[in-house]
Please model this.
Amino acid sequence: MILTPVLDVSRLSFCYEETEVLRDVSFCVNKNEKLSIIGPNGAGKSTLIKLMIGILKKTSGSVSINGNKVEQYSRKELARLLGYVPQANGGTFPFTVHQFVMMGRYPHLSPFTSPSEKDEAAVEEALEITGTTNFAARNVSTLSGGERQKVYVAAALAQGAKTLLLDEPAAFLDPKSQDEIHSTLTRVNRDGGVTIVAVTHDINIAAI
Model:
């Protein structure tokens, strides 16, 4: 029996104006796998993640999710399949942690409707998994870099997507926070059946 990869990248290329950033990148990721993509700063790793999730438009090649081209999905459909965690670059938002994580439920919410019990349960579970329940009422802007990155992961988990794409998830964090982030990702991959694709420039982190 041949399994359809969760994520299939085929001969993907991208140019920014006259600058070639990526050329003929190919790989596939199966369900429940954990893949680290390693490369130095400026190698195009963040660009690759943004192409996979449809933030950027490829120059050539293809990206398929569960056997269908990424362009075939609406933004909401894609968000039910893929969760995206950006770098911990210091950005803040004027919301409480609970409000921010609830925003991760947007693929499942209709306009002008209140969150359901299912939505609340998904948020509570995501907060518990990431160890952020104790500061759910705090404003995101008051959190440390490590705490904020945990909240980003919680919001992605609250989406309910079974594949997470992470852009340098532990960059700019202290060693303790790095360990906590990677322990959380390993746990959701191993116990929660979440497929993990993360880019990093640190080969030691990739080996965890």
Q: What stands out?
A: The radius of gyration is 17 Å. Residues 153 and 173 are 14 Å apart (CA to CA). Strands lie at 7-16, 19-29, 34-38, 60-65, 68-69, 82-85, 163-167, 195-200. The longest strand covers residues 19-29.
